[in-house]
Amino acid sequence: MSPLLYAVPVFLGLIFVELLAARWMGRKVYRFHDAITSINIGLMSECVRSLLKLMSVFVYAVVVEKVGAFTWDLASPWVWVVAFFMYDFFYYWAHRAGHEINFLWAAHVVHHSSEEFNLSTALRQSSTNQVFYWAFYLPMAIVGIPVSVFVLVALASTLYQFWVHTRLIPKLGWIDLVFSTPSNHRCHHGRNPYCIDVNYGATLIIWDRLFGTYVAERDDEPVVYGTLVPLQSWNPVWANVKNYISMVRDAWQAPRAGDKLMHVFAGPGWTASGPAAPEQDMANRYAVFETPSSTWQRVYGMVATAVVFALFMHLLMVAPGLSVAARIGYGLLIALNGITMGWLFAGQAGAIGLEALRVVLVFGSLAAGLWFTPAPATVRVVAAFGMVLSLVLLARARGERGDTVAALPGAQA
Ligand SMILES: [Zn+2]
Ligand SMILES: [Zn+2]
Hints:
This protein is an all-alpha fold. The protein has 2 domains: about 5-210, no CATH class; about 295-405, no CATH class. About 60% of the residues lie in helices and about 0% in strands. The chain contains 18 helices and no strands. It has helices at about 5-25, 30-65, 75-100, 100-110, 120-125, 130, 140, 145-160, 175-180, 180-190, 205-210, 235-255, 255-265, 280-285, 295-320, 325-345, 350-365, 375-400. Helix 2 runs parallel beside helix 15, helix 16 (about 325-345) packs antiparallel against helix 17 (about 350-365) and helix 17 packs antiparallel against helix 18 (about 375-400). The longest helix has about 35 residues, at about 30-65. Bound molecules: zinc ion (2 copies). One zinc ion binds near residues 111, 165, 185 and 189.
């Protein structure tokens, strides 16, 4: 059974706690469109991960069996200590490569595409990371760290990294010098000049201090979150493919073979004419992407996310017994929801019609008993109710004018 079945509700509960705490402290650390997009990106990434993880764990297990240099006693604490330090060390280099090599950045950029910084940002994970990053941990397999230890250490590292995504926890003194903490990680997500390519650590920050990538958060310069080339979209699929498309386009258009390779393997923003000029426009650098939204749109967004979340939890529960095709089907449904929601939030033409079509297809097939056979009566009734409620909310969202765009500095219509 997936540990996410337990972790995801805890994560959502903590996001709710952070929202309440921020309100109590009189601070605004969430924006609706951004947070829903983060959650949709996270759901999509987990669907892909559940498929690809099998592949990477399989390769790891084969390497341990064929070339594992040592046999470790699982009862000894040493295997856990060694595995923890090795995993954290290789995570540092995988993460650093993810920022400093363009094709790896194309995958990792998703995590940095939010212009907010809160616990929902932690869920904003790449769907394509899984294709490349397992290779960085193969040295652990080569020294024979058992696959069960590797999986648990990796899981603990992922869970640890959730709490560092918050603005509400201040600097923590000496702890900031040893561990990855909210203060360190705020810098990592910043686009201020001093925040570029720093603080890669997962659990420990000592690797950054050792290899010269550590900076401390500055009190005189608030961190501005996001990337130098902003995403400017609420579409989770676009967030995952945008940088690949621009990388392939740049490589394609480069006249020399060497330059083509540089567009893939050099740092993000590399150009044949010299280093990129990220400093062009400081006002632009600090602009925040926002689109108008109405109360009804927000209510609709919340209901639709709750529904897709239920679908995701159901997938986690039944996944072990599902065929790969069925899992891909679930993933596609979740991705489709993300796309239509992104278009709806951005007020794109045809978004309401497309979303209505999606609602009728998904709920309609459930209500008509076409999805699960035999579908329990309660599921069919709830689906029919969900379809009607969604369509009513969509109709209301359509009638309301957006009301938040003017309130935000640097907002774009
Ligand atoms: Zn990063
Ligand atoms: Zn992060």
